[in-house]
Amino acid sequence: MQLRVVTDEPWDVQADVLVVPVVGDPAFEGALGEIDKRSGGELKSLADFGELTGKQYAAALGASGELRAGRILVVGAGEAAKLDRETVVRVAAAAERRLGGRTVTKLAFWITPLVDNLAEGGERAAALVAELVARGVVEGSYDPATIYRENVETAPPTLDELILVAPGGDAGALKKAAERGVIIGEGANLARTLSNRASNDVSPEVLADEAYALARKHHLWIDVIGPERATELGMGMFMAVGRGSDNPPRMIVIRSGKEGERDALDRHVALVGKGVCFDSGGISIKPAERMEEMKMDKTGACTVIAAIATVARLAPGTPLLAVAPAVENMPGGHATRPGDVVKALNGKWVDITNTDAEGRLILGDAMTYAERLGATHLVDVATLTGAVARAFGHLVTGAFGQPQGWYDDVVAAGTRAGERYWQIPLIDDYVPDMESWYGDLQNSGSADGSLVKSGLFLREFVTVPWAHLDIAGTAYYRKETPYAPRGATGVAHATLVELALAGARGA
Predict the structure, then answer these.
(1) Which of 84, 85, 161, 342 is the most exposed place for a label (fewest CB within 10 A)?
(2) Mean of the per-residue pLDDT values for the chain?
(3) What is the pLDDT of residues 113-122, one digit of tens each?
(4) Pick from 489, 142, 83: which is nearest to 302 by CA?
């Protein structure tokens, strides 16, 4: 897709469709009034009919009259006071999705209404909106139905050209910002495709192969650890989960920059992602209902793999690690049993009381290994608990972290990315509930406080600043929205990219 920024008035831009965002209730004055006038009163007519409103993500397609664009697409952005980065991305994605099944190759997007109302942008508002709109259009173009099928009639259009319309703007600066947004959007879509692919398509070995191909493409160092070497290293928790499947586990390690190298903020950040390519629950088997969704349990790994590739595109050589423990959690003759006691890579003995609490086991060994490779700061991303989805639903990611300063850095990156997090406390009073008669701790216990306990368990395997993002509720949608299809959302990818780029040289 070609990207172009023009400083003409929106009615002078030639395109198949002109997107006109409306913030608040539509008022047909100024530039919006001129667009309505040149369209022959089309917008006001749609508003009078109730088709055009300022309701968030509501879209109305109309005739263009004397405009140079073939059609007008009006998309509501909601109340001006509530316009934020997340909304800008979703407005752009909703516009692209509204055109599903239509023949559109050249899309123009008038960004001025969003620039004028995004209070947090300040002097950078135009560049920020250009980036977020470009990212949103790219993410809005994604449809998982096209992974295995060639012809999907309702899929969003494949654009040849995206034109950002910014009268009076700095075209060069806006294009540079928009190009950044396109790359971040493409990275999110990569993570989504890897996550959405079926378990018979993406085993731990296939995920490692995909990571290897990305590493070669972007000149990154990669190491893939198989079961024999993992056993020799002492990754007892990782192997306890992975040994039950005929598809052997893989610990995937990707590095940007030199071994142990610090970034501009004196950090060697490691992104650790849970990669359970299918989670049956193991011997503690899950109910049949919605078990097909457990192909999504690899989303954390897919996210960190995509994130380090995105960072490599935007700031090559930025010191960064991505560690993705990839397994299948299956019952079988070699599967771990409830009551088995295993030795973690950090030397702690863990009593496995529930084989369906497997994510924390593979993450624990992965984070220990990341520290051994020189990580000074850790962020893990995982579809870890059903409890987080029950607490926060599908729009807010639950998060833990220590010390508070590092957690705040991660959430600040999320704010820049337009992603929402809510901090969950690490309550030490729950630690005694995790004690085991046979080991140093057990991997699961009673349901009360289980979300907090999941974070406390992971904390046992870190000695450096650490944050945990539980994306079990936000990793995928069960039904489509105006701005996204069913399936993987790409959540946390942009956050990780922003976090890493904060330490890029010259950033």
Answers:
(1) 161
(2) 96
(3) 999 999 876 7
(4) 489
